[in-house]
Design brief:
About 70% of the residues lie in helices and about 0% in strands. It is built from 8 helices and no strands. The mean pLDDT is about 85. Keywords: Sigma factor, Transcription, Transcription regulation.
Length: about 170
């Protein structure tokens, strides 16, 4: 594969690579960095690509491996190593344990609000909350995809209105 062919095919896959990078990172800036690192490694290792094989799969594999390696580095960086005698810092008692009673009450109230929704919006909303993809919900309920999306949207909107009605405008914590 010539250099021109390689860059032409790579250029055609740019949109898909950027989408995949965003899917992995869930952050636009991190996705741009991941794409750039993938492009750099693909260009520098172009001679290792076997012509006649799937360039898209090769590039996606490079991107996925870079993401995994970066993730592992971040996780290692967050590990606390305590080399003091008797693990003084880890056992110093500075950690706070939260009491979940308040959050349990909020969850129970939210459950009451959700159960109060009409079945047409509650069922798709709960399925989405449980991790089903929009298409899976549409197939299961035998509804068009757009209908499922709009019902989930309306369920969220209705819940927000009910919460605002009960508690007024809540301050968002970040």
């Amino acid at each position: 594969m010539s250099q021109l062919e390689f860059f032409t095919e790579f250029d055609q896959l740019t949109t898909r690579l950027n989408s995949f990078a965003y899917n992995l990172t869930k952050n636009s800036e991190d996705a741009k960095d991941l794409y750039q690192e993938t492009a750099f490694r693909a260009v520098t290792n172009r001679d290792k690509f076997n012509p006649g094989t799937n360039l898209k799969a090769w590039l996606f594999t490079i991107m996925k491996n870079i993401f995994i390696n970066n993730y592992r580095k971040k996780m290692k960086a967050n590990t606390i190593m305590d080399n003091t005698e008797n693990l003084y810092y880890l056992n110093s008692g500075r950690t706070q344990v939260e009491n979940g009673a308040e959050s349990d009450i909020l969850i129970k109230e939210l459950t009451v609000l959700i159960n109060g929704l009409d079945d047409s919006t509650r069922i798709p909303f709960l399925m989405h909350y449980q991790g089903f993809k929009y298409q899976e919900i549409a197939d299961h309920l035998e509804l068009p995809l757009g209908t499922v999306k709009s019902r989930i949207f309306f369920a969220r909107k209705d819940l927000k209105l009910q919460i605002a009605g009960r508690y007024g405008k809540l301050r968002e914590t970040a």
